[in-house]
């Protein structure tokens, strides 16, 4: 048994029968099946050159840039975007809950950049608690990525969700811990934020 239940909540769900392969360097991936034309096109789409080079490999393999909550019910001009590159703004997210309208459909959008290497099994995990009790866990598999050939960020839209509704749902603050991790257990982002449900945005 683990001694930290909060860490257990944020562990990825294991897929029966799936075992992540041993991580390979970009050069090893580039040299695999070098004569396979379709595979070479796929590797080129990941930013792998024929020799496996991708530029200088320094810093984290993946940087999470933003997390956005989007809904067709949002008032014109209103955006709920978390800038995850600014530590000062991240600290504010926990202290100042955002307001989400009850009973509406919304979806989460995440923007991230792969800086170097191939990142396998990237996933977003979110645990929601109210009064210290877990009320929801969202786990979204994002996939495996290499650096974008044009050094552009990746944007991933999650499946639509519906916010809770009712008087009980509107009482209290929901505390959320979000994490972006991969098959190797490397954590690329981990932050806390909070929200309240209301009748209107």
From TrEMBL:
It comes from the Eukaryota. Signal peptide: none annotated. InterPro entries: Ig_E-set (IPR014756), Rho_GDI (IPR000406), RhoGDI_dom_sf (IPR024792). SUPFAM superfamilies: E set domains (SSF81296). Residues 1-26 are annotated as: Disordered. Its main location: cytoplasm. Keywords: Cytoplasm, GTPase activation. One of its GO terms (biological process) is Rho protein signal transduction. Pfam families: Rho_GDI. The keyword Nucleus does not apply. One of its GO terms (molecular function) is GTPase activator activity. One of its GO terms (cellular component) is cytosol. It is found in: Cytoplasm. Belongs to the Rho GDI family. This is Rho GDP-dissociation inhibitor.
